Amino acid sequence: MPTAIDVFAKVRGHERAEQLRAAREADLLPYFRRLEGPAGPIVEMEGAERIMLGSNNYLGLTADPRVQAAARDALDKYGTGLTGSRLLNGTLDLHLELEAELAEWMGTEEAIVFSTGHQANVGTLGTILGPGDTVIVDSADHASILDGCLISKAKLRPFKHGRLDRLEKMLGRAVEDGGGVLVVVDGVFSMEGDIAPLPRIVELCKAYGARLMVDEAHGAGVLGARGAGVSELFGVEADVDLRMGTFSKSLASCGGFIAGSHEVIDFLRVSSRAFLFTASGVPAAVGAALAALRIIRSDEGPELLSRVLDNGEYLSRGLESLGFRVVRGEPAITPIVPVLVEDDWKAVLLWRALYDAGVYVNVAIHPAVPPGGALLRTSVMATHDKAVLDRALDAFENVKQKFESEHGALPAPGA
Ligand code: PMP
Question: Domains in the chain and their CATH numbers?
Answer without folding.
Answer: 13-62+300-407 (3.90.1150.10), 63-297 (3.40.640.10)
